[in-house]
Design brief:
The complex is a heterodimer of chains A (450) and B (494).
Chain A: H1 3-16, H2 19-23, E1 26-34, E2 39-48, E3 51-56, E4 65-68, E5 73-76, E6 78-83, H3 122-127, E7 131-136, E8 171-177, E9 185-195, H4 197-204, H5 208-227, H6 229-233, H7 244-254, E10 260-264, H8 267-280, E11 284-288, H9 296-301, E12 306-308, H10 327-333, E13 338-340, H11 353-362, H12 367-372, H13 376-381, E14 399-402, E15 413-418, E16 421-422, H14 428-435
Parallel strand pairs in A: 1-4, 1-5, 6-7, 9-10, 10-11, 11-12, 12-13
Antiparallel strand pairs in A: 1-2, 2-3, 5-14, 7-8, 8-9, 14-15, 15-16
Chain B: H1 11-18, H2 32-37, E1 71-79, E2 85-94, E3 97-102, E4 113-116, E5 121-124, E6 126-131, H3 169-176, E7 179-184, E8 192-200, E9 218-222, H4 225-232, H5 241-268, H6 278-287, E10 292-296, H7 300-313, E11 317-321, H8 330-336, E12 339-342, H9 360-365, E13 372-374, H10 385-398, H11 405-410, H12 414-419, E14 437-440, E15 451-456, E16 459-463
Parallel strand pairs in B: 1-4, 1-5, 6-7, 9-10, 10-11, 11-12, 12-13
Antiparallel strand pairs in B: 1-2, 2-3, 5-14, 7-8, 8-9, 14-15, 15-16
Helix pairs in contact in B: 5-6, 5-7
The chains are: A alpha/beta (450), B alpha/beta (494).
Chain lengths: 450, 494
């Protein structure tokens, strides 16, 4: 492994982002501005001290450094949801994957924020796809967090089988930003993750009926524990099935404060999960929901948001037989708040989030809704409305200047700011690309090129 | 002509001649019908099935083509696939073949139905050289997982066509993405995974009904991590890269001997005939050039090893698949005449995929005589190969390369046809070729473009606006969601 090269590349990227620059008043002018909730032609976005100062049609304030974005599109940085960014470097190299928890005594308390690597080579690649924030989730069957086999060597076909969580709960998600630097953690423990459907049934022994009973029983134990901590500490409480750490982690879930990301695909399972959440007073976010369009009105009535991949249109398993390209459009039309995911755990292919949004548009989702689904909606769903994912005063200055419509593969992210700091438009992939740009057959071996 | 008097012609070369259109042999001096009926003079014919040459095409294509109509597609922007872009173009289709392609002045023959493509784009049908549709179908459940005969590192004897389930809903989804031809390959668990099969993407009850007449077989070979991991974890060879190479070499030594025995027996007719061996038969087909090597190989250094190995045994590699590092060897690949079949966006899922770059196709495409191909290996990605090509084009342009859109279209049309040895049949809109045509709602390099109509051999196979031309597989009938329109969007396909 050319580890040294990697470190040098990362250090070079870090040097580009000058902290002093963040203090400057910068105005991005003349572009088509997608604020996340609206469009301003010939707009001006002013940023300073890492935050958006103003967004509108006015001129640049005096003293500002002006970035000419005429003919360009300006958008908030996109938010990758159900992602593994920063938590897994090379999917098949288990030791580089800190999202996969196999510990028996740590399940709900598993906290991905401890394993995040600001120097991950995946981050600049995602950033060049316009991603500036991510909701990093523990690895869970059928969802994000890495561990996917890409070519056929796992013998699994197009299904989503394979990984099983050791328990009902996969652990807790964290929010990161993608600025170069040493600290990418924005907020740890923003949500709990639990697989349902076939994967959840697998945890409980194979049947959904067992998982639901076990889930309810677990919440009952959490509540018992929460009411009787003193008794628990002096061993005056009956034996509980979870560790103390897991019980603690589940208290905010049981009392409806921490959202529970529920991986669920089949329409019938979605209805069961909605009922479970209502009965238990748990706040949930649906993840996957390939058959969601069949029960869109029920999801909307429950005011439950959905994280989905709009290009999941094949019956990869028997619980996704109604998967359709129109899922995103149908859920949006019913009034459901949706966030659009990247591909394959949204680590290496997080950059494809924008294409997925574009494909949702070509299958009926209004363009504005697609932009919302990768900007403001993820922020809303994870309790960060107004803080990022939107160009509005006070929000983090995550801004991307695009050569054209950001949902188009032919468009590129030309300039990128995260927290007001401009990011170097490069990645390890660009270094490799440039090293071989002339065919690699010069007198000196390519290794002499930087 | 007595079969055993054919000097130097191997088993598989004969098989190819009988198929009428094998692109790589150039051998059509023998007549398959005669070969099939020969053997009756001099000595008794071998029992059925014991002599490959007696029945060189035992699972023959029954592909008929869909009902078709002569037509003129007029007014659209035509990407020919062969590097031209024609504004306000005309494509004349007669008897299922492209009869003429040109600008607005191209005459429309009397009686041809005029198809209005104004405001739309016209391309050849997309060709996916690396698909597991049907062999790893949806649903991806264990009972349907038929793509890897992972029981031995050399399973050159298996044929993907024998695993192919034509009811895979993925075929319909791929067609709605403009895919008209696919190569269905075995998986990559083994050094030799088996034969692939090239199919026309038409709905069919049988594999034979899709099989492309005359298309050469491909042999799936795999470099790298997959075989060594699969067998190494069983404490079996190959467990390493060097074990991989030893495995290929041992197999080709055996195949050389096998081929020599048959060649000799056919020449002199002396002694007992060799025992037919399906594994060696496929490898002998590689040695005589009738079967194309389709080589899963990620790393540049391993590609170079494979090129030398092919020279050691006297065969050619047609294409490297999943050629993540092809850009490091682009001039060599062009000189050797080897296609590189690539993704744009996939990377980092294992060590040998670490050095992927989005500009791979653009860089591979740059040298003269190159063959850059965008492929899928995936039931979802195959529906959007046009977008994968667009992303590769954007990556090339970002580094300052001047690549026209019509060039990028060749990465998903003509070049994949070359990669499959069927470029004389399809892959571009040029007179004489099969009329595999897609009419797009917008520029196919746009994320918003949808395939409006897809023609295969001039027959309408898919129409986004007309449910009568939106086939469903048997599996899809009556399943959850069946018959319901989601979001009031014209469904087109699922």
């Amino acid at each position: 492994m050319r580890l040294r090269t990697l470190i040098l590349a990362a250090a070079g990227a870090a040097a580009f982002a000058l902290p002093a620059a963040a203090q400057q008043l910068t105005a991005i002018t003349g572009g088509r501005v997608l604020t996340g909730t609206s469009v301003i032609e010939n707009g001006t976005v002013v940023i300073r001290d890492g935050r958006v100062v103003s967004v509108g049609a006015g001129a640049a304030p005096s003293g500002a450094t002006v970035i000419d974005a005429r003919g360009k599109v300006v958008s908030p940085g996109f938010v990758a949801v159900d992602s593994g960014l920063g938590g897994s470097e090379i999917s098949s190299v288990g030791d580089s994957d800190d999202l996969r928890n196999g510990a028996n005594s740590i399940s709900a308390s598993f906290d991905v924020s401890y394993g995040l690597d600001p120097w991950s080579i995946t981050l600049p690649v995602a950033r060049l796809g316009g991603i500036t924030r991510a909701v990093v989730v523990p690895n869970h069957p059928g969802g994000g967090g890495g561990g996917h086999a890409h070519d056929d060597s796992d013998f699994a076909g197009v299904g989503h089988g394979g990984l099983q969580s050791p328990s009902l709960f996969a652990g807790q998600a964290a929010i990161i930003h993608l600025a170069a630097g040493t600290d990418i953690l924005v907020k740890p423990r923003v949500a709990m993750v639990a697989p349902f459907g076939e994967a959840g049934a697998g945890v409980a022994g194979g049947a959904r009926g067992a998982q639901f009973v076990q889930f309810k029983e677990t919440l009952a134990e959490v509540r018992l524990y929460a009411r009787n901590k003193a008794a628990y500490d002096r061993a005056g409480l009956r034996d509980l099935s979870l560790s103390r750490a897991d019980l603690e982690a589940l208290i905010p879930v049981a009392n409806g404060q921490m959202p529970l990301i529920v991986t669920v695909r089949r329409a019938a399972d979605i209805l069961q999960v909605l009922r479970l959440a209502r009965e238990e007073g748990v706040k949930i976010i649906l993840d996957g929901a390939e058959e969601g369009w069949l029960v869109a009105s029920q999801i909307a009535a429950a005011d439950v948001p959905v994280l989905l991949n709009p290009i999941s249109n094949l019956p990869g398993s028997l619980e996704t037989r109604a998967a359709r390209m129109q899922n995103a459009a149908a859920l949006d039309a019913a009034g459901v708040t949706i966030a659009i995911k990247g591909n394959e755990g949204s680590i290496h292919r997080a950059r494809e989030t924008r294409y997925n949004a574009g494909n949702a548009v070509s299958h009926g989702l209004p363009y504005e809704a697609a932009i919302e689904a990768i900007t403001v909606n993820p922020a809303r769903i994870f309790g960060m409305a107004g803080q990022f994912g939107e160009l509005r005063p006070g929000a983090a200055a995550d801004v991307v200047v695009w050569s054209g419509d950001p949902l188009e593969p032919l468009s590129i992210a030309e300039r990128i700011w995260v927290n007001g700091e401009e990011q170097a438009p490069t990645s390890r992939q660009f270094l490799l690309r440039d090293r071989y740009a002339q065919g690699g057959e010069g007198a000196m071996p390519p290794a002499y090129g930087r | 002509m007595r079969l055993h008097r054919l000097r130097g012609a191997s088993l598989a070369a004969l098989a190819c001649a009988a198929l009428a259109a094998c692109a790589t042999t150039g051998s059509n001096g023998s007549n398959g019908d005669e070969a099939a009926s020969s053997g009756d003079s001099g000595r008794a014919a071998l029992a059925p099935g014991l002599d490959a040459a007696a029945n060189p095409d035992p699972f023959p294509s029954t592909y008929r083509g869909l009902p078709r109509q002569n037509m003129a597609i007029v007014g659209g922007v035509v990407f020919t696939g062969a590097g031209q872009r024609i504004e306000n173009g005309v494509v004349i289709v007669t008897d299922g073949r492209v009869a003429a392609v040109g600008d607005a002045s191209t005459p429309v023959p009397a009686g041809h139905q005029v198809v209005d493509a104004r405001g739309r784009f016209v391309t050849p049908g997309i060709i996916d050289v690396h698909s597991h549709l049907g062999v790893y179908p949806s649903p991806g459940v264990q009972g349907m997982s038929d793509g890897n005969e992972a029981t031995s590192p050399n399973t050159a004897q298996v044929w993907a066509e024998h695993s192919l389930w034509p009811q895979d809903p993925g075929f319909n989804a791929a067609r709605a993405g403009g895919v008209t031809t696919l190569q269905i390959l075995p998986g990559s668990a083994n050094l030799f995974g088996g034969r692939g099969v090239t199919v026309r993407n038409v709905p069919s009850v049988t594999m034979q009904g899709m099989k492309m007449p005359g298309a050469p077989y491909g042999l799936k070979m795999a470099c790298g991590e997959n075989p060594s991991r699969v067998y190494g974890s069983r404490n079996q060879s190959p467990a390493t890269g060097m074990g991989n190479m030893a495995g290929y070499r041992a197999a080709f030594i055996a195949a050389r001997e096998y081929k020599a025995k048959w060649d000799k027996w056919r020449e002199d007719g002396e002694g007992s005939p060799p025992t037919r061996n399906l594994q060696n038969e496929t490898l002998a087909g590689v040695l005589d050039g009738s079967i194309l090597v389709q080589n899963h190989c990620y790393r540049a250094d391993e590609m170079a090893q494979m090129i030398d190995l092919a020279k050691e045994f006297g065969f050619r590699i047609t294409a490297f698949h999943h050629a993540i590092e092809a850009y490091k060897l682009a001039p060599t690949l062009a000189r050797e005449g080897i296609c590189a079949d690539m993704w744009t966006g996939w990377w980092g899922f294992k060590m040998e995929a670490l050095d992927a770059v989005e500009a791979n196709a653009a860089l591979v495409d740059a040298p003269p005589n190159s063959c850059a191909v965008i492929h899928s290996d995936d039931a979802e990605l195959t529906q959007r190969l046009n977008q994968e090509a667009a992303a590769a084009l954007a990556a090339g342009r970002r580094m300052g390369m001047d690549i026209p859109e019509e060039r990028a279209i060749s990465w998903i049309t003509l070049n994949p046809a070359r990669s499959l040895g069927i470029a004389d049949q399809t892959g571009s809109l040029e007179p004489g070729k099969r009329a595999d045509v897609v009419i797009w709602s917008a520029n196919p390099l746009s994320v918003y473009a949808r395939a409006d109509q897809v023609f295969i051999d001039g027959g309408l196979a898919f129409d986004r606006m007309n449910p009568a031309y939106q086939p469903l597989s048997d599996f899809e009938l009556g399943q959850p969601g069946y018959g319901l329109a989601a979001a009031n969007v014209p469904q087109g396909a699922r």
